[in-house]
Amino acid sequence: MSRHDHFSTRAIHIGSEPDPSTGAVVPSLSVATTYKQNGINKLLGGYDYSRSGNPTRTDLESLLTSLETCPSQTIANDARHDASGGESLVFASGSAATAAVAHWVTLSEKECGAGGRDGNGHGGHILAVNDVYGGTARYLARASRPTGLDVTFFNMEKAGEKGIREAIRPDTKLIWLELPTNPLLLVPPVRLISNIVHSLPSDTRPLILIDSTFLSPYYFTPLIPSNGDPPLADITMSSLSKYSSGHSDIILGSLTISPLTNKVRPNVLKGLRFLQNSMGASPSPRDCHLMIRSIKTLSVRMIRHGINALRLSHWLSTKTKLVERVRYPGLESDEAFGYVQDLISKNAKKELQFLGWKFPFAPKSYEGLEEDSLEYTRTLGIPFGGMITFAIKGATAEQAEKFCTELRIPILAESLGGVESLVEVPYGMTHAHLPQDTLKELNITPNLIRFSVGIEDYDDLVEDIEQALEVAVGKGKVNGNGHV
Ligand SMILES: *Cc1c(COP(=O)(O)O)cnc(C)c1O
């Protein structure tokens, strides 16, 4: 018996053991599409065809399982390997993972699906948060129609306990949550939802899935139980294309099933593996290999994303008059801040404590402290991801666009989570396909900016944002190009 290593150690070593035959410290990329058999169905290493399974993909899946489900420093049979009983499935994109789960809801119980409306497949219900990722909304509401899937997009924050209980129907198979939501960075009451769901019969209750793409397992591990409560979710879904990749150069997605759910409802994994193989959205082993390399630096990247985002959200809220509605859940003044201490992973807490953060967070004044100091930053809140949204005060769509194109460092582009800062205007880009009344209800206005804060030098970012705001909506300083 030994213990699981801490997150950063596992991020580097799990699935990356030196090759026993050559000693290579980085595992070889396994590109074969098919595998020699020693007799009919006598497989050498458990692999027969690469869509169904591939050693490089297996390495990535075991790495993800470890990061999503193994608490640091707990006793395990083998410290180097995942011994949690959880399991991960990697897909060609986050959206392919979403499609597999949606399909699973409508799949018959005989095929290890959730059974759909009556157990025989077709239909079934998903209760989803109302501002889900645009592609998720598109898949659930439109692409999956022929499967009979029924989806309710629901404002869980507003509904309260009674409203949530009433919204769960006898054929509700899954509750789809995102944390934080996109683009508004709302934090749904996951603890409350989990308590409600766990009060229902365990073999028929809906499963809870959390799309945790925006935080990555560095900041948020809802499959790991804390304080004796059941885990907050049964499944985490992640677009690995974002923070896990970190360099805007890989599209991949994953699902991870919690050890507890695997134990109590083993058919969930069977059904999802069946679909991973049958639906064909398998990842390329080359992408899996690059992803394993990317995840090795997840810790160092995420802490820097978080610190830059905390400082920047504070700057935007207090140092310029040109923006409003600044949202960053880690900022002490943010309406979601109350949830953050309950939700932040033990691992992130440990690393932040080393940097001097105290838990529970005790508000302190930053008056008199040097602004360019860690001491000052510690008074602002808690680093919790790298995503910020804000509105440019009174700006038209053209002015918002001007702001984005005037920026010298952050790039105007969709997506997020890369080391480079990216900006986008949800109203005209990622969320443009939403109906006008939904945009209005969610307050996604043409002047709303979503900012994926990169890990560039903080002072360079602030200086650049300040000048772009001035050019777009400020009093106007004449700059080198001569325009006002
Ligand atoms: C990007 C994203 C997805 C979809 O993932 P892809 O890898 O682009 O298919 C799902 N959810 C969230 C929150 C995302 O940001």
TrEMBL record:
What Pfam family is a match for this entry?
Cys_Met_Meta_PP
Listed under GO biological process in this entry are: cysteine biosynthetic process via cystathionine; transsulfuration
Identify the keywords attached in UniProt to this record, alphabetized: Amino-acid biosynthesis, Cysteine biosynthesis, Pyridoxal phosphate
Region Disordered, annotated ranges? 1-23
GO MF terms listed in the record are: cystathionine gamma-lyase activity; pyridoxal phosphate binding
Query: Would you tell me the Gene Ontology cellular component terms?
Result: cytoplasm
Q: Which residues carry this modification: N6-(pyridoxal phosphate)lysine?
A: K242
| EC number from the UniProt entry | 4.4.1.1
Which family does the UniProt entry place this protein in?
A: Belongs to the trans-sulfuration enzymes family.
Supply the name of the protein.
cystathionine gamma-lyase
- Originating organism: Kwoniella bestiolae CBS 10118
